[in-house]
Amino acid sequence: MQKVPRPDSCTVEGLDREGNKATFDLDYSFHARVFQHEIDRLSGVIMIDRVKRKETICELPEWEKYWKDKEDEPI
Q1: Where are the domains of the chain?
Q2: Contact in structure between 51 and 4 (CB atoms under 8 Å)
Q3: Cys-Cys link to 27, which of 9, 38, 40, 72 (CB 3.0-4.6 A)?
Q4: pLDDT category, 1, cuts 50, 70, 90?
């Protein structure tokens, strides 16, 4: 269940330390979500802008207790 919806994959293009082109295809992974999060930050978009249900924002112990196993409900 994704409380912060993001695409399942992304392609990252850039330069490596020597200035050579580098491309990474990130599919269905933690890395894809993290990279998209960081790109959002560079664009001025924060997590609160993307979260589906703002009441789910909490510390990890509370999230695990109240939200972890819940299905998304229509908004």
Answers
A1: 9-66
A2: yes
A3: 9
A4: low
